[in-house]
Please model this.
Amino acid sequence: MSTAVTGLLRPLGAIVIALAFMSILMTASAQQEVLRQLIVVDPKLDYSSAYVIKLQVDQADNDARVAASNEQAANQAVAKASDAFAAAQAGFDDAWQSRLPQIRKLARSDGCDVDLKEADQADFRPRGQILSTLESCPAGAAALAGQDGGDVTAAYRGLIAANYQLFVAKQRLARAQAVAGALKEDDAKAKQIRDSFDATIKLRSSWYLGGDTLIDFPPALLQIILSFVSGAFGALLLTLVLIVYPNTRIEVASNSAYDARILLGGLIALCVYVVLNGGSAVLGSAASAASGSNNYMTFCAIGILAGMFSDRVAAWLSSRADAFFRPSGGRDGGD
Model:
């Protein structure tokens, strides 16, 4: 790889590592704040379970907004159907009145004996039954569909269609209101759990900070990522110090191998994390590590120092290995 390309990629890589470190550090800090809030709401609730409840509450809120929108649309549909029904009823009344002389004459004609008393009711259905009976009379259909007064039968069919559309709109409105009413019954405790994640709002809304990807990680898993990135950040920090200040008094094995030093810093910090959580009493028991209740700043600081002075940490790990894997019997070459 040419010197120009290397000179371009290394600064970009340094920026990426720095941004990743800040993003994960902010996420860990926000998670610790969430855990402090959750202790007040429910001390027995862990982070992952609370996050699932938060997602459920968010989904319920979204469903409630959709239900409210559907209810509003159903109300508009009912209003529109009501206007259409009123217009159809007015048209039918006009057609009925215009054809009323023919209807009365037809009702008294031979072979068609129809009582028009029910036609005075407010409901339009008795008039419809009368029209149905009159159509079966001799010359009934022709008399009702005369050109001079309008087709009263067609007006009635239009009224029936408008009435059906109004019925369907009201049914949809009733279903929308039932769904909206059921979704308004929120669990107060679940909302408190959801509110405990307010510290993560900025992170979740910013894609360049990881969005929901990092927030979704349980604290115990994020501490592992934080340890590795802290080590890489510490190694990058020391490497840049050696580049900018070549005569510094910091004692390291070598100031070369830029890329390898950064990778080694992350791996060394991860190794220190495992060793400390495996048996050290400095940071707490293994149970606290598993639950993510350890102080994330402690791991961050140790990771940075491990990455900066990876040669010293390697020597420290070597001495720990000598103590742990000491031959049985206390002498070299023992069985």
